Amino acid sequence: MQAIDLPLTHSLRAAFVVLGLIGAGLVLLSPVQWPWRLAWLSCWLVSNTILWRHYVRSRPTRLLLSQNRGLSCLLADGREMQVARCELGVVRPWLVSARLVGIEGHKSDLFVPRGMLQADAHWAMRRALIEFRKPDSEL
To answer: Is 45 within 8 Å of 28 (Cβ atoms)?
Structure first.
């Protein structure tokens, strides 16, 4: 079994802040009255804060690759999740995004930019996600 640690890097936090600022700027530049802009801005900031906190609490911190092409992961809240379904988003050398669905139905979003891991670990993770098989499936 191979383990890949998934740290929460400074660049991932910075990307979230930049995307939040871009969205806030677009809201402030909208051609509506100022009271509506401020209401939309507060909704935008509250929703982004909630989404970030949810991501940080439920994100995978370690991906465990088994020999039979199965996956499990350790979540930030300390639980271990056996992956039953892997919904791939983007699997490229510069970015990997996927939604991992556990056997009990819990979902966790995997988002790994290129600089977050060493090249060989990033390659192994991409290969494991593409070749994923359900835990009870036969080879």
So the answer is: no
